[in-house]
Design goal:
This protein is α/β, with parallel strands linked by helices. It has helices spanning about 1-15, 55-70, 95-100, 130-135, 165-170, 185-200, 225-230, 230-235; strands at about 20, 30, 40-45, 75, 110-115, 140, 145-150, 155, 205-210, 240-245, 250-255, 260-265, 285-290, 295-300, 305-310, 315-325. It comes from Forsythia ovata.
Length: about 325
């Protein structure tokens, strides 16, 4: 126990965010302050790490411009952070080549909160959570699953790659780093239990879940059936407002037909333009927006309003959506 507590304290110190020890929860919890007026400005990008190629540098440039206008609080990465096979170890130069040397704008020197994607699992999956990366670039932070608490919203970052059956039953020529995952069903059961407990106990005005894989999508990957079966019911039962993901290399907004839940894909950080569509299998859901190219998403959050914008590579707003809640609505 002493070793575990030491490691948690060490992570807390190097991250620079506030760390809360909760004896009743397995998911590690961190805090990030909102602005003085209680609002949050967030940028979301995914599927980006290609050493500047496939327009990654151009997307990063535009992110910097929009980030400056927004006065960003932090950035969310939806995974597939380093192509094609994650990082080889915590000393891999791809970290600088795809991250530090690309996202150089002053507005992007804020904390990045990241999850792992399936490509990240094809390398050293533990490397991206190594404290050594934080020493190499202070804005980097990544764990498999964790909770980020702010004054007005809670973000639940979930490790979705182990849910996909095909990575275990038909990996083709790929080798995945399953350290800490096996036995798989125990890992998934525990993760879902901890997530459900955290969501149920949350009093946040806005509940947002972040994962790499899609739940509902019109992109080439389509719906992820394992998440539809096991994760979606938990989100709906606990009044989650948004599920944010990458995986499909596009920008997308799907609105649930039987709950307030919004499915938001921001996977256009580099290689895109796949030209394939696979519409959601749930006819009750409504696809409000789909763009098969590069770009990113922003969130503006206040106590009673959320505004979402999707941007393309030259800064055009392609889609805008908002919602509101009563300032004194019951949680």
């Amino acid at each position: 126990m002493a070793i575990k507590n030491y490691l948690l304290i060490f992570i807390c110190v190097i991250v620079g965010t506030n760390f809360i020890v909760d004896g009743n929860a397995e998911l590690q919890r961190f805090e990030h302050p909102a602005k003085a007026d209680g609002s949050l400005s967030i940028l979301v990008v995914g599927d980006w790490g290609r050493k500047g190629n496939y327009n990654q540098s151009q997307v990063a440039f535009q992110m910097g411009i929009i980030g400056e206008k927004m006065d960003l609080d932090f950035i969310i990465s939806t995974g597939d952070n380093f192509y094609p096979k994650g990082l080889t170890d915590e000393h891999d130069t791809a970290f600088e080549e795809s991250f530090t040397k690309i996202y150089t704008a002053p507005s992007l020197q804020k904390q990045w909160y990241s999850v792992l994607g399936n490509h990240d699992y094809r390398g050293d999956a533990l490397a991206q959570s190594s404290p050594l990366l934080k020493q190499r670039d202070s804005k980097w932070f990544c764990l498999k699953s964790y909770i980020l608490s702010t004054d007005i919203a809670e973000f639940f970052f979930i490790d979705t790659t182990p849910f996909q059956d095909k990575y275990f039953t038909d990996p083709e020529d790929e080798v995945y780093d399953w350290r800490g995952i096996l036995p798989r069903q125990n890992y998934l059961t525990t993760l879902l239990k901890d997530l459900e407990s955290a969501l149920r106990e949350s009093h946040a005005k806005w509940k947002i879940v972040v994962g790499h894989h899609t739940i509902r999508s019109a992109g080439i990957h389509g719906d992820t059936k394992e998440l539809v079966k096991r994760l979606l019911p938990i989100l709906q039962a606990n009044n989650v407002d948004m599920y944010i993901n990458g995986h499909d290399h596009c920008l997308e907004h799907v609105s649930s037909g039987d709950s307030p839940l919004q499915f938001l894909t921001s996977g256009g950080g580099s290689k895109a333009w796949r030209g394939n569509y696979s519409w959601s299998s749930d006819e009750n859901d409504q696809t409000k927006f789909y763009y098969d190219g590069q770009g990113f998403m922003t969130l503006q959050i206040t106590q009673n309003e959320v505004e979402i914008n999707f941007y393309d590579i030259v800064g055009n707003i392609l889609h805008k959506w908002g919602t509101s809640k009563s300032l004194f609505s019951a949680i």
